[in-house]
Specification:
Elements (H helix, E strand, L loop, with lengths): L4 H23 L9 E7 L10 E4 L2 E11 L6 E7 L10 E6 L6 E6 L15 E4 L3 H33 L2 H34 L1 H27 L2 H24 L2 H8 L1 H23 L24 H7 L1
Parallel strand pairs: 2-6, 5-7
Antiparallel strand pairs: 1-4, 2-3, 3-4, 5-6
């Protein structure tokens, strides 16, 4: 069966129209034979969102952005996007505009909410929100810091201006003199440090010898301490402490009047008797030396004993008188 030229031309025209419609749908990222649900979202600023951008739910690609156009004279934008029928969500779910990468690019993600409200149907307008991008976050963080830096520079300028007003010519001259004096002081300290370094360099050997001698002296003291310890110094000190303790006890008894020495120290009558006895003994010895006939009378041939004559100054009388 032969086709006429008119039929062939009609088939080519119809095929071209179909290809054009399919290509146009492909370029708009829409399909002629799908049954996806279409939703709307209104934004004040889409930030460069383009048709054909994927729409995600929990990071999974579920649709595409179909169209972006102005909604009204206020400049708000109406975004049309499609979502697969495989996943359902409620009308209270939000269509969030977010950055898809660090270097830019916007996308839409549906944040499903299951709060018991009716399910979203095709042609519904979802609530929207815009997530701040990296650039906006940086600007939000840097703006307060920028204000603080600017305030610090302003305060520094004011401080310098006040310092200039306070420091008159005389004060500036005095300050320069102070700085010069400080420089001279630092120079003197540097010179003193150099002199000290030269002294230490010249006497390095002597210092080493002195330190060596000091170390030897310390070692000798250590050996002496060990020798004293080995010689029983600890026992000797312990015995001395015991002796001192006993002496303290004896002294305490003497103070209380206990024992012979204690009684001698505390009994005044005994002391007086001993003093009187000592004095009488002295007088007796003196009388015996002066008048031996009173006490000793020896007769070899049996002579009659001569009667004793009392001397004019009798020591006994002197004792009685005393």
């Amino acid at each position: 069966m032969k086709l006429s030229r008119e039929i062939k031309t009609g088939i080519i025209v119809v095929g071209g129209i179909l290809l054009f419609i399919l290509g146009f749908s492909y370029l708009k990222s829409t399909s002629l034979f799908d049954n996806n649900k279409t939703f709307y979202a209104v934004y004040d600023n889409v930030g460069g969102l383009q048709p054909g951008t994927p729409v995600t739910i929990n990071g999974f690609n579920v649709g595409t952005v179909n169209d972006i156009k102005f909604k009204d004279e206020t400049g708000r934008l109406l975004v049309t996007f499609s979502v697969d029928n495989d996943f359902e969500f409620t009308r209270s779910s939000t269509a969030e505009l977010y950055d898809t990468g660090i270097i830019g690019g916007k996308g839409i993600r549906v944040n499903p909410i299951f709060d018991g409200s009716p399910l979203a149907k095709s042609k519904d307008t979802l609530q929207t929100r815009t997530s701040p991008g990296l650039t906006e976050l940086v600007q939000q963080k840097l703006t307060p810091l920028q204000l603080k830096v600017e305030g610090a520079f302003t305060n520094a300028d004011s401080l310098l201006a006040n310092v200039n007003n306070i420091l008159d010519d005389k004060a500036k001259t005095d300050l320069q003199g102070t700085l010069q004096g400080f420089n001279k002081t630092m120079a003197s300290l540097t010179e003193s440090a150099n002199i000290l370094n030269r002294i230490l360099s010249k006497n390095e050997f002597k210092l080493d010898s002195s330190l060596t001698n000091f170390q030897e002296l310390t070692n000798n003291f250590a050996k002496l301490s060990d020798s004293l310890n080995n010689a029983g110094l600890g026992n000797t000190i312990a015995s001395l402490q015991s002796t001192m303790a006993n002496l303290d006890k004896v002294m305490a008894k003497l103070e209380k009047g206990e024992g012979t020495l204690g009684k001698l120290m505390e009994d005044e009558e005994l002391y007086d008797n001993l003093a009187n006895a000592s004095q009488e003994l002295d007088l007796l010895l003196q009388d015996f030396r002066l008048n031996p006939k009173r006490y000793v009378n020896v007769s070899v041939f049996g002579k009659k004993q001569i009667e004793y004559e009392l001397p004019e100054e009798d020591p006994a009388e002197l004792i009685n008188q005393q």
